[in-house]
Write a sequence for this structure.
């Protein structure tokens, strides 16, 4: 896949458009039923946002995208991934398995609930960084049972906490 959240029925880029531009169609290319990758790239560069997965190798145990049917074969080395990112403030997860994997990788005792954040001492005060937090958001998947407006509000609160709004 050429970018994160490419599935046209996933609302991630619609939520982002709503939060930053008051337009859930801002990143949508409805004619081609896809997203405007160039607009996404420009936005991410301007805001200093990066995406990565909590696992580098995953085994799908069933022809289903549900976390229930995913086996993490190789978790991402988060410590190494963020080395040199001196302005890192926040790591965000949007699913239970991603949150669980990240917490396990960083030896975090307890996961945050959805719409909560916790400090990540293992990443804070390293390489002249200030506090780094893990912020858990609701999934942007339409299968996640939460209204679009409530998801957008949760993302808005996270971006406000990050100082991006």
């Amino acid at each position: 896949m050429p970018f994160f959240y490419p599935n046209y029925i996933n609302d991630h880029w619609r939520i982002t458009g709503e939060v930053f531009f008051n337009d859930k169609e801002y990143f949508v290319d409805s004619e081609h039923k896809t997203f405007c990758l160039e607009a996404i790239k420009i936005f991410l560069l301007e805001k200093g946002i990066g995406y990565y997965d909590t696992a580098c190798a995953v085994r799908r145990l069933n022809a289903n995208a549900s976390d229930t049917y995913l086996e993490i074969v190789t978790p991402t080395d988060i410590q190494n991934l963020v080395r040199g990112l001196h302005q890192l403030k926040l790591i965000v997860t949007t699913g239970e398995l991603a949150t669980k994997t990240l917490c396990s990788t960083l030896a975090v005792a307890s996961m945050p609930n959805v719409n909560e954040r916790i400090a990540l001492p293992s990443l804070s005060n390293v390489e002249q960084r200030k506090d780094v937090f893990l912020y858990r958001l609701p999934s942007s998947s339409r299968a996640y049972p939460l209204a679009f407006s409530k998801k957008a509000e949760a993302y808005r609160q996270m971006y406000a906490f990050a100082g991006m709004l």
